[in-house]
Structures are given as structure tokens and as C-alpha cells.
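Q: I'm writing a short explainer about NAD kinase for a general audience and would like to include a description of its predicted shape. Could you first generate the structure from this sequence?
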Amino acid sequence: MDRIRLGLVLHPTRDVSPVVDTIAAWAARHEVALTVREQDRQRVPESVRPVPEDHLPAGADVLVSIGGDGTMLGALRAAVPDPKPVLGVHLGKLGFLVEVEPPELPAALDRLLAGEYTVESHSCLACDVCGDDVVAFNDIALIRHPGQGFVSATLAVNGQQYGYYRCDALVVSTPSGSTAYSYAAGGPLISPATRAVVVTPSAPMSGISRSVVLSPDERVRLELRPGSAPVAIEVDGQVIRDGSTSGAVDIGYRADAGLVVRLDPARYQERSQLKLSLLDLPLLPEQLRELLPENLRRQLGRREMPPPR
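A: Of course. Here's the predicted structure. Afterward I'll give you a sentence or two in plain language.
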């Protein structure tokens, strides 16, 4: 059986030590090499070798993302130059991309070692933001500063002017990202099997007021108009530029830019559909708990009890 090299991508702030310890113990039993970014060396056991951040994807056969969707997206972005499969371990709150819960991790790693998994391909947006090259697997957004006016920008597709926007935010998303900011802004849900780019305004005041769905072969250009409010630019939820009042963002679609490990695609799809349906329920978490059968409520109560001191 061939050995694999695992690169660990850690949530930047959460305590990931229980999951890392599980992986380290499993790796020791199976003689699997583990690496992590140099800046995370204090968060892992000594058996995990630290490497420069840009060397992590290249030196691994599979990346293991420990966190939520944001951590997973970061792992995918890091591996764009040389895409490697990414296994997501869920420590977040909702998580549409991650598949494995911590109790399932040892069995998941066994299947990874045995090659018993499939790889799901993900597209990204290749963006030129005022001369800087960035990639987004979910979305890129131009967002106004509260109290300082509105985002005012023009839309051009393949060099042809389509119209303008005056809104709180402009969100350009991939099909996978259609369940994130674009969905919250009123955009459509796009099947991950579809190749498309979606441009959605949030709280439009004038100009284009509906989502525009474009072909992956079409290039999008958003250019700030004179008098636009200061704009923050987010890529997959991370601010990369703040306070811009001029400039342009050019966006193209790139297929097969990221690879996600799937151990049970049918079960993952069922979970994702349930999570998506819960987004439309105007209920608090404690209200949702009341909808569960009594035996499940008792189990949840036991899990949430603090450990004895």
C-alpha cells in the first residue's frame, strides 16, 4: 500500500488540538508524514514537520483542512498552482464544503490511505483587482462602508457595457458560492454541476436590480464610477482591499481549479440540502431543537453538558 503525505491546514483561531492529536496518532501508526505551515508549528505535536507556507501544498499528496468552510476555501486557494485533494474536517457552525465530523476522522483517514474516495472538482474566479491577481472559490464582493454612500459601478461583459449598479454590495460568485453571500443577497441557487458566473447586487437602489447569470467563457469587468462610496473588496469573505473609490475588477472563470475529497457523496448531498433548508427557517437554534424527537433532545443535552471538574 502506497504511503501518502498529509499537509495540515488549521483554522486560524480555534482550538484544533484534539483533531490534530487524532491525526498525529493515526499517522504514527501508519508511518504517514505530516506537515504544517511554519507559523502553526506551536499548535501541533513535534512529529508534524513545519514547512514554508508556499511549500505546504507542493509537499503533500492530500491537504487536511481543520475548521469550517473558510479554512477549506483557504486550503483550496493555497493549492491553485498545483491542485491537491482537500479533506475537510468540520469544526465550524454550518459548513457546506466540509464533510467529516471529528468522531468520523479515524475511519475517514483509513479510507483516504486505502484510496477509497472520490474527488469533486471545483471552479474558481480568477480576478485582477486593480492589478493584483487573486482567486475566489466562493465569491468576490465589492461592499460599501456603512454611512458613506453606495457602491456605484458599471458592468461590462467581454468588453461590452451592460449597465450600472448603485447598491450596498456587488457579489460575483461561482456555482458553489451561490449558497453563500450571493444567496443572502437574493441571488439564485446554481447547481455545482453547472459552469456559470453569477453577478448579484445587494439592496439595489437603481440600475441593474436582478442577478445576471453569465457563461464561463465571458469575462466580467466591474469598474467603480466617479462618486462611488469607499469600497471594501472581499475574496471568499476576506478583505483584500479597503477604502477604494476608483479602479476596476476583472473576473474570469477557471474550471477544475480545486479538488475536494468526498467519502460519501450521497450522504454529503443530503446533509447539504438539509443545511440549506434550515437557512430559510426563521427560527433560533433553541427553537429548532424543540422540533427534534425527545430522545434526540436528550442526547444533545448530554453532549452539551460541561465536563466534571
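A: For your explainer, you could say: The radius of gyration is 21 Å.
Q: Perfect, that's easy to follow.
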